[in-house]
Amino acid sequence: MTQTLTPPKTYNEALKRGHYYLQTVGFNGFSFQDLANDLGIRKASLHYYFSSKEDLGLALIKEYEKYFNNFTKKNAKLPAIQQLEAWLKYCYGMTKDHQKLCPIGVLTCELNTFSSKMHKSLAKFQSNQRRWAHQTLKQGIKEKAFRKNLDTSWAADIFLESIQGGLQIARLHKKPALFQKTLKGLLKSFS
Amino acid sequence: MTQTLTPPKTYNEALKRGHYYLQTVGFNGFSFQDLANDLGIRKASLHYYFSSKEDLGLALIKEYEKYFNNFTKKNAKLPAIQQLEAWLKYCYGMTKDHQKLCPIGVLTCELNTFSSKMHKSLAKFQSNQRRWAHQTLKQGIKEKAFRKNLDTSWAADIFLESIQGGLQIARLHKKPALFQKTLKGLLKSFS
DNA sequence: GTCTATAACGAGATAGAC
DNA sequence: GTCTATCTCGTTATAGAC
């Protein structure tokens, strides 16, 4: 009925294309012009939604985190190993979708070109993922999916780091199967 | 005596600073102007050495590979585990040196903004590293440093991918120790 | 081998009309 | 909410003097 109920279509489309570019060419690899072309509007119009590029960057990270939180909530009742496998499946999908990378990996490479606000936002997001991985791995031990003496703190870190690096190497050699093999093997080594 | 014997000081300095920038802000994160400022010359002068930025990029990768080949040759007679540990030590040093990243990781994130020439050069470099890791891991089994049934193909991939991702996460949280812990743990898990 | 000067372009950002 | 128009700046790259 009122304008607050109508969905901000342009805003959402911009975020969607922003995510695409971020994961394929990096945050510094695309411009307002690129987004504007895709949306069929002028780049000046984008400043109505995002006052600056940093503003866009913060919105993109926030959106990623929203998706991630939704994902973990949706799968919270599954056995731990299935939760971790579901995340791997989602990441594996990136290798087939324009060889996208993990956004955290991309942004970390560009980190020194960002403001501290974006830096902090990204670090918080990664800590969030790390907390989930750690807790899920601990749950997996209780469920006997992983060995009792597994160092879950270490496992959480290497799991997330390997996803990042694995997606990057898979892109380099155009070999999605490489990601699959490495990460499945890592999960198996936790047993 | 002749000019071919005098070292091309400017050229080498440019490569050195190029490496620094590549690993701290990415290849697209610095300009000829940055290099020129550091060297105390005009940016136009750099085109005497590098006809284009792509040309500079190719030279930087070639230089990395030269260093790597030298490194492996130098340590070739050490036990396998010491060779791998030496490489980890070198990478760990990056975390303390302006939080540098693995150049392959950085360049892979920016890959879609590069020419196919640079893409191929980078892929070849990574394959070279992968071959070394694989062969060294196999040697480590013979030397009883790693378990007999270790999947060395898998181990080589996860080793290199974790280095990449590990350096990135260490930068994000400004925690060099994180890299150390993850990678030492991985190597130990191969036993 | 380094310089000045300049071309050609694309970036982020803003003012103000509609 | 989207537009035109414009500003300012930084980028790669080239021509030609010294």
UniProtKB/TrEMBL annotation, chains A, B:
Keywords, alphabetical: DNA-binding, Transcription, Transcription regulation
PANTHER family given in the database record: HTH-TYPE TRANSCRIPTIONAL REPRESSOR NEMR, TRANSCRIPTIONAL REGULATORY PROTEIN
Gene Ontology molecular-function annotations: DNA binding
Name of the protein in question: HTH tetR-type domain-containing protein
Keyword flag Magnesium: no
HTH tetR-type domain location: 8-68
InterPro entries listed in its UniProt record: Homeodomain-like_sf, HTH_TetR, Tet_transcr_reg_TetR-rel_C_sf, TetR_C
Database matches in Gene3D superfamilies: Tetracycline Repressor, domain 2 (1.10.357.10)
DNA-binding region location: 31-50
Pfam families in UniProt: TetR_C_13 (PF16925), TetR_N (PF00440)
